[in-house]
Specification:
Blueprint: E1 4-7, E2 12-15, E3 23-28, H1 39-57, E4 61-66, H2 84-92, H3 96-113, H4 129-141, E5 145-148, E6 151-154, H5 156-161, H6 174-180, E7 196-201, E8 217-219, H7 221-233, E9 237-243, H8 247-262, E10 267-273, E11 276-278, E12 281-282, H9 293-298, H10 310-318, E13 326-328, H11 330-350, H12 365-377, H13 382-400, H14 408-425, H15 431-455, H16 459-471, E14 474-479, E15 482-487
Parallel strand pairs: 3-4, 3-9, 9-10, 11-13
Antiparallel strand pairs: 1-2, 5-6, 6-7, 7-8, 11-12, 14-15
Helix pairs in contact: 4-7, 7-8, 10-11, 11-13, 12-13, 15-16
Bound molecules: adenosine monophosphate (AMP) and zinc ion.
Length: 488
């Protein structure tokens, strides 16, 4: 079984060959930390978390780098943002780095809630200004960039003149690009409207600014990813990922910067995750069509009829392939919840199944495992993998009903394979176990409060805690070693 993945650059599913056998360098564009991540952002990061987990499960050693965009940067159309950080700092009356810290912490909390593994390296754009200045200088020296009025631009036409192909990833024709673009920013500064900023002169109101050979300014957004991916993964690495919307211009520009600097294409496989939609429209902060992850989990929203556990949200996301659009809806979440509960019920039931080494089963464990791995190797096809897991679920319930049999070796194999796919690869969590842990912690807090009340002779309160818990079916038992509880 060979791993195949869809390469956006060639538009084909290709057999994956790492540069260094057994090792993978993977870079994924991280969040812009000037506001909370919405559920759409989470989907992209979750898609790559699944890919990261799958690669590790398939035996690769992965160095996973995901950056934090914490410097004011350029907007999608390549024009200078009128500094979203500045706007947000005014709105919240905070220092720019306070904004950055606040939303970086929020981002980490959200991803942890959905059980995403942290990347191996999480570099920040502001921590790599020196590298970005060096790259800009190199591009000027090599004739691919020019200074204009304190800013530095990448010369797209020069790049193409040298036989390189700007537009190769997004399949855009440079002539069309030139014809269809109006220069909204850098008017008079750029040679051509498609030229993009590597370094931008800071206006007097701009707070985030650094010294450079071209005066005070800040780096272009596209450059930060080239600087950080090159630093931690080398001039050429295996996989670069991000949301579909980053293909152009962001990733197109990264390819151009890499080739212009080092004479080689920086990335072997470009992977793009598709969008999360709501009401059939792309989830986005700017249109207001979005939901925050916490709102879905707490139920504080007008769109879903009830709250959903993060693991169910994760399961719902993985029921769609990472390259397909996923429209989140109440019905989709309810259906995922049902499926999730059935899957977890099967895991539980499997623990009480007794093996039978005499009878032969109709279910071929090896065939089933092969199908699961085929799905994973086929461009990380999570919905097909999940469908195969449900074949095992059916078998497990048949075992439980005594309609099927399994040998003791088979039972161990089924348990470990199922656990590996559910917990390690899909990254799901057992809600029941988690809830029990939470309940245990909560009861310990209540016992501690009751002890404090007794110590200060507030027997009315201590009795109230005991009686109210008893009414809920939780009995406190005082013993020599302290108080324990029994769930009735
Ligand atoms: P940003 O912080 O805006 O740079 O976005 C972070 C990541 O979220 C990028 O990889 C985007 O492609 C991705 N993203 C933005 N909107 C959506 C969406 N509606 N669905 C999935 N991914 C998205
Ligand atoms: Zn990037």
């Amino acid at each position: 079984m060979q791993l195949k993945l869809y390469n956006s650059l060639t538009g084909e599913k290709e057999i994956f060959k790492p540069i260094l056998e057994g090792n993978i360098g993977m870079y994924v564009c991280g969040p812009t930390v000037y506001s909370n991540v919405h559920l759409g952002n989470v989907r992209t990061f979750l898609s790559f978390d699944f890919i990261y987990r799958s690669l590790m499960h398939l035996g690769y050693k992965v160095r996973y780098v995901r950056n934090i965009t914490d410097a004011g940067h350029l907007t999608d159309d390549g024009n200078v943002d009128n500094d979203r950080f500045v706007k947000q700092t005014r709105l919240e009356k905070l220092e720019p780095m306070e904004i950055v810290q606040k939303y970086t912490v929020d981002f980490h909390k959200v991803l942890e809630m959905f059980n995403l593994l942290p990347p191996n390296i999480e570099p920040t754009a502001t921590g790599h200004i020196v590298e970005q200045i060096e790259l800009t200088q190199k591009l000027i020296e090599r004739g691919f960039a020019y200074e204009s009025n304190g800013s530095v631009y990448f010369d797209v036409l020069e790049y193409n003149k040298r036989g390189l192909n700007y537009g190769e990833l997004s399949k855009r024709n440079i002539e069309e690009l030139f014809a269809n673009t109006r220069d909204l920013d850098g008017q008079g500064e750029k040679k051509n409207p498609q030229d993009f900023a590597l370094w931008k002169k800071a206006s007097p109101v701009h707070i985030m600014r650094w010294n450079s050979p071209w005066g005070e300014g800040f780096p272009g957004w596209h450059l930060e990813c080239t600087a950080m991916s090159t630093k931690y993964l080398g001039e050429k690495f295996d996989i670069h990922g991000g949301g579909m919307d980053l293909k152009f211009p962001h990733h197109e520009c990264e390819i151009a910067q890499g080739k212009a600097c080092n004479d080689i294409a920086p990335v072997n496989y470009w992977m793009h995750a598709n969008m999360l939609t709501m009401n059939s429209q792309r989830m986005s902060k700017s249109t207001g069509n979005y939901i925050l992850p916490m709102q879905l989990v707490t139920g504080e929203n007008d769109f879903f009829e009830k709250p959903f556990h993060p693991s169910i949200v994760r399961f719902c996301f993985l029921q769609a392939h990472y390259r397909s659009v996923l429209d989140i809806s109440n019905d989709a979440m309810i259906a995922s919840e049902k499926g999730f509960i059935r899957l977890m019920e099967a895991v539980k039931v499997l623990n009480s199944v007794a093996p039978d080494n005499e009878k032969q089963s109709e279910f071929s464990l090896q065939e089933w495992k092969d199908k699961c791995y085929d799905a994973l190797n086929d461009d990380f096809n999570s919905p097909i993998l999940i469908a195969h897991l449900f074949e095992a679920v059916k078998y497990i319930f048949a075992l439980n009903d005594g309609k099927e049999t399994i040998s003791s070796a088979g039972l161990e194999d089924l348990k470990s394979t199922l656990n590996a796919f559910i917990y390690d690869v899909l990254g799901l969590q057992n809600i029941e176990e988690n809830n029990n842990e939470k309940l245990d912690q909560t009861l310990k807090v209540l016992i501690e409060l009751r002890n404090q009340a007794r110590k200060s002779k507030n027997f009315e309160l201590s009795d109230q805690i005991r009686d109210k818990l008893l009414a809920e079916g939780i009995e406190l038992k005082d013993g020599r070693d302290g108080t324990t509880y029994v769930l009735n």
